[in-house]
Amino acid sequence: MSSTIGATPRRTVQINIPPPQSSSSTTSAMFQRIRPSIVTSFLQRPHSLPFVLSIFLFLAWISLRSYRSSPPIPLSSPNHDAKANLRRFSSHFPSPIAKDNRGAVTCASLHLGEIGPGKLRGNHRHHDCNETFVLWGAAIKFRVENSEVADIGYAEVTIGRDEVVVAASPANTAHALINIDPVRSAYFVGCQDSIINYNASSTDFNVWKDL
After folding, report:
1. The dihedral of CA 165, 127, 195, 200: what is its sign?
2. What CATH architecture does domain 78-205 belong to?
3. What is the pLDDT of residues 58-103, one digit of tens each?
């Protein structure tokens, strides 16, 4: 009697062993885990507050040192304002311009405009129109014809950045608005008591050659 014993099949077990890491990579990984915990732990301590504040103060000091403000622009005297048919108001509230209840100027034509830094508006003369301006926003030079001013024949005043000005240019009187501010734009409202036809001969252009 014979018997047959079957052979037991062999099983292959594969074990993947990662290659050994170098000491430098192990140290780097360890520091990456430690650094955030050290910073977080330090910031949670009470004595870290002066250190953080000193950093902010240092950054603020650098910001102030790098800031360069434009030089102040000298303003005109009140005597020059009268010759230029001009009155000044502070742009800060309360302002007299908001309390004035004497009435309003009637405008047949009204326009609003912006004058960029170093730019010019006007430099013309209307023969049949009275014009009133409200000026603000930047340092502005306002020039208006005035025969009472000897030699040059015009009055010229400088308007400050923080002022709101109401100025008048009667008919047959040339005027010009010059923004002398290096940074800010100037703004104006022009009110005319009649409709202006710029294509007609009732307006003289480029009156002053030095502008």
Report:
1. negative
2. Sandwich (2.60)
3. 777 666 565 455 566 666 666 677 777 777 766 554 444 444 455 5
Distance, in Å, from the CA atom of 106 to the CA atom of 109, rounded to the nearest integer, reads 9
Mapped onto helix, strand or coil, the DSSP state of residue 57 is helix
Q: Where are the alpha helices (DSSP H) in the chain?
A: 23-43, 48-66, 78-83, 96-99
Taking the alpha carbons of 94, 95, 98, 102 in that order, is the dihedral positive or negative? Answer: positive
Q: Domain locations in the chain?
A: 25-66, 78-205
Peptide bond into 94 cis (omega under 30): yes
Report pLDDT digits (tens) over 103-135. Answer: 555 788 888 899 999 999 999 999 988 998 999
Please tell me the pTM assigned to this model: 0.56
